[in-house]
Design a protein that fits this description.
355 residues, mainly alpha, two-stranded antiparallel sheet, 10 helices, 39% helix, extended
Length: 355
Amino acid sequence: MGDPSTLLCIQCIINHATITDIIISVGDFNLPNLKWQFDEATNGYIPPNVTSVHEQILVETMFTISLRQINSFVNCNGRLLDLAFVNLPEHLDLVLPPSSLLPVDNHHVPLILLIDKCCDASPLQDVRDDERNFNFRTCDFSILNNVLGDVDWEVLLQDGSLDEIVATFYDKLQRTINDHVPRRRPSSSSSFNKPWWTPDLRNMRNNLRKFRKRFFLSRSDDDRGNLRQLEASYKVLLQSTYENNMSRIQASVKQDPSRFWDFVKQRNSNNRIPHNVSYDGVNAHNNTEAADLFATFFESVFSKGSPVQRHDCYAHLPSYDIDLPDHFSTSEVLKALEDLDVKKGSGSDGIPPLL
């Protein structure tokens, strides 16, 4: 599992996954010398003793694509061979089964993976479903250059109007980028990174995970009742910490306005429709109903009629004759490209200067 080809396959799966997908990579990576220690900041296990090239490739690749290692069960020899990399560690658990279905291999511990689909779908989850940025800094530009160099641009761009030729050029370029430039997945929207996440909430979350494991193994009515009670307490504390954080932001507007604007900036960076939308006593149950409520709210400030087009104003616009060259030399184009600042962001076409 630790060879580069396998890691490349995992990277390919990541590139084609959406932000809402749960990604799990489990198997024998055959790196018994790694010692995994739990890290609260990432809510997963990290190895502090990376030494070999294979260990370094594995750790750097998995952590770069926002996967966390959650397995800590060693085999009878005290070694951890089977690793479990996931993208949402707060919603997945590994437990030992009460009994195995097949004879147990001394080198590999039988495991059961629990997936918690009851995610905290409240105003606490700020994720843009379509947010997958291209990571040009990790792109293999030699491959990209070869692919673009093999294109017969003179044949591809010889027909059509100027607008059609430009559209054809960008279409071919975008297809090449989609196929050969890796994507940078945003870090999982873990609750641990939220400003209202308190130590008490963290401890209760950890206890909740332990109770779920206990109930899964025992299936007793007492553990079921304790689990349900703890789940209810966790939801109450989660909501209260969020509301307390909002109250603190509102109360500190005059004394600390930067805190308020940080919150506004965070909210504005999210383009998704809120989970809970209501207006005038009506609750939306899906995105279409939410959009209708927004339309109803803003109905008083927009007109339903079509705007009247006036062409007579065009006659009073001044005209200019601009002497533009009809040909640019290769050296002029190269000079313009060399003057680009690769540290700048993309323009309106989405193509970064680095490319």
